[in-house]
Amino acid sequence: MFFAPPNATQPDEEPIRQQSKDSTISEFVKVAALTDIPAGASKLVEVNQVRVALFNLDGEIHAIEDVCTHDGGPLVEGTIVNECQVQCPRHGARFDIRTGAALSFPAFEATNTYAVQVKDGEVWIERPE
Ligand code: FES
Q1: Which of 44, 52, 113, 122 is the most exposed place for a label (fewest CB within 10 A)?
Q2: CATH of region 16-126, choose from 3.30.310.50, 1.20.970.10, 3.60.20.10, 2.102.10.10
């Protein structure tokens, strides 16, 4: 049995589907209201038992897996630095919030990213596999 973290939000609406240029179908699920994530803030959500950290970088929402690739630290609890990076609260590795790329020791692998759509004040993310 799986238990969601107490501060994680579960999607509550039917997914929408979108075809990309390479003909793959992405499924998006609503995860938050835009007002839940003010500029400079972050929010933890959970989809398909995957923890996803949402970040608002100057009005633009980004979604990355809430897992530091060094040792599983919760990136949603990290500090935003240099306007677009998150510093892991455990050992200080930095990730690019826009791309998921690992930028500093002790993490070397990127964390997953998810496409985001904002429609009518609602935040939708690509459903993690
Ligand atoms: S768990 Fe993130 S830097 Fe170690």
Answers
A1: 122
A2: 2.102.10.10
Please report, to the nearest 10 degrees, the dihedral formed by the alpha carbons of residues 87, 89, 90, 93 taken in order.
0
For 31-86, write each residue's pLDDT tens digit.
999 999 999 999 999 999 999 999 999 999 999 999 999 999 999 999 999 999 99
The structure tokens listed for 33 are 């209201």
Is pTM beyond 0.90 here? no
Q: Is there an atom of ligand 1 within 6 Å of 68 CB?
A: yes
- Ligand 1 and 97: CB distance under 6 A: no
